Amino acid sequence: MDSGTWKHISGLKIKALNCIRKAIGNGESTSLWFDPWLHEGRIIELVQHLSPQLTGTENWTVSSIIQNSQWNITLPCLMPLVNAISEIQISGKKDQWFWLPAVSGTFSFASAWDQVRTPFALFELYNVVWFPSSVPKMACCLMKGLYNRLASRDRLSKFGISSLEECVLCTGEKETRDHLFFQCPYTDIQDLRTEATHIQQKFKEKREALATESRWSLILRAERAWTSWIVPMIVVANVIVFVVVMGFNNCPSHVSTDRFGSSCVAGFLHRFSFQPLRENPLFGPSSSTLERLGALKWDKVVYQHQGWRLITCIWLHAGVIHLIANMLSLVFIGIRLEQQFGFIRIGLIYLIAGFGGSVLSSLFIRNSISVGASGALFGLLGAMLSELFTNWTIYTNKAAAILTLLIIIVINLAIGILPHVDNFAHIGGFLTGLLLGFVLLMRPQFGWIERRYLPQASQVNSKYKAHQYVLFIFALLLLIVGFAVGLVMLFRGENGYDHCHWCHYLSCVPTSSWSCGT
Question: Which residue, among 231, 422, 247, has the nearest Cα to 338 in the 3D structure?
Fold first, then answer.
C-alpha cells in the first residue's frame, strides 16, 4: 500500500478511539493513562500539561487506584478528575470492551461503516427508487415488464382503474408496455436502438413461450406461498383405510378354490389377498365387506338412519386399480390447487364436494353400493373451472385455459356413462365444487393488490370486482338450497327418477356391447 493509504488508515484511528469504551470491572486489564475508560476520554489527553508527573506510573492499570473495591485516588494529577472517576461503578468482574455505535455494544461492520462514511441527507424521493426492506424497484419493474404486468395505462383501463389510454409522455399513441420501452419518442435514443430491438425480440419470444404453457404453470410461478400437506395426508389416509379394509375382508377365510379354479388373488398376502377376479376385477375386497365398513347404500341411509355413510364412502375404494387411479388424479389436481389457495379451502372443497356427490348418488342409485373419492375429485375439477371464470381478468390465454379444462371434464364425465360407474357421484361432486369455487377461490383485483404503488385517483376501494360478489352470492344461495332440497328428498325416501325420467342416461347409456340393468 502507498503512503496515502496508510495515512488514511491512520486517520481512522482517531475515529475508532471515539467509538470504543472500556467498562471497568476489576481494572486489572485496563491502562490507567492510555485506555478510553472515562466518558471524558483518555486520561493522558486530559492531563497532558502534567505529563512529567507520570514518571514511574506509565504502566499502571486502573486497579492501581482501586483498594478493597473502592476508589483510592492519591495522585495529584488525578484530583481534577475525582468526580468523574467516582461515578464509575466497580463490579469486580473482568474489564470489557464496548463498541459505542451499537446498542448491544458488539462490533459490526455495518455500524463501523456508518461511522467512517460521509453521510448524506435522505433523498426525499427515496420511495420512488426503493421498496421497503431496501428492495430496488429496478429489478421489480424489469420483472413486471418481462411478464407484461406493469401498471401501464392500457392495463389500468382494462381493469377499470383509469379511462385514459394515451401515453403519458408523448400523448400520441396507446400506452402499452412495448410502446413505452421501444416506440415512444422519449425512448428513441439512437445509441440504444440495436440493444432495444434485441430486448424486444426476447420479450416476444418470452411471451410466445408463456402462451404455450398451461395456466397452472403460470399461476404457480407467481404464487407458491403454500406448502401442500393436506393432499398428501388424504392420499396416505386412503391407502391406510384400504389396507385395513383388506385385512378385515380376509379373503382366505371365506373363499376356497371352486370347480372353476377361482381362488383369492395374490394368496401370498394371506388375509390381505384380493377377492377372485370374477367377483372383483379391480383387485379389492368383496362388496359385502365394503357395505359393512361404510359403503353408500340407499336403504341403509334412509331406513336405518346411517347418514354417516354419505361421508365414509368417500374413503373406501373397490380395489387397487380404483385406489391408484383416484389417488394419482388427486395428486395431479389437488397439490397445485393447495399450493395456490391453501389447505383450508382445498380441504373444504374436497370434503363438501364428496358429500354432495354422495347425496346425488343416493337420490338415483338404490340397488347397489357406491364407494370412492371420485365425487371429491370432480369437485376439485369444478372448483378449477369456476376459479377460471371468477378470476377471468387475470389470465392472458383465456381460450386455451378454458378449452383444456373443459376437455378434461367432458372426457371424465363421459367415462361415467359406462356400466358399473357411479356418474351421479361425479356430477354431484362437480356441481358442488363448481359452486364452492365461486365462494372460496376469489382473487383480489389488481388495483387492490397494487394500491400502495398507484396514485390516489387510481386506487380502488373494493377488494373484489362486482361480478365476483354477484357470483359469490348466487353460488352460495344455490349451494344452500341444493343441499337442503337434496337432503330433504333423500331422507323422505323420494326417488330422483320420479322428478327426472331421462336422468338414467347420465349414469349409463345402453349399447349393443352392454346393458344398463341392475
Answer: 231
